[in-house]
What does this fold into?
Amino acid sequence: GIQVEQSPPDLILQEGANSTLRCNFSDSVNNLQWFHQNPWGQLINLFYIPSGTKQNGRLSATTVATERYSLLYISSSQTTDSGVYFCAVEGRAGSYQLTFGKGTKLSVIP
Amino acid sequence: GAGVSQTPSNKVTEKGKYVELRCDPISGHTALYWYRQSLGQGPEFLIYFQGTGAADDSGLPNDRFFAVRPEGSVSTLKIQRTERGDSAVYLCASSLAGELFFGEGSRLTVL
It folds into this structure.
């Protein structure tokens, strides 16, 4: 099946700093989503972005499907941004299965 | 409701017991998914429903696991003869047009 690799696995930021999280995938995708899992375990949708660029406040994401990667940008980080960020992709057309990466654990310190 | 609702939020059971986990999807969402997340890992796919039928159950680990969605809305994940290795957070998601929205999960602990 499709492979999803996220980097870095862990990231510690000072409050106010910017960061870029990366997601590489091994095959063409029909669906790509970024999620934030907060410390209470809730998976929160950030972006549905199989291609192109989207922005939502301090967050933005870019997926370059032809080169099989996606980037999540966090600007002016806040302590509430802490948690695990997951990239998830749907590979084979019509499979409807999202394959998750192992996540990037982000800690934002005051 | 406004979001995906899962009950119970926590379930502790003994090895060998039967467990049911319930998922109430976002109103109008035709697609429903079950995922399982172990500590320190990303969620793993279990089963996908489109309407009332299980369109893809290839992620169910063995025949002790079964899920139903009889009226195309609420779904129940059923686990027979639970084992300690079944301990995990069971996540439900629903979707209308490809974008998945997850519930808060049911944490299952098998003693």
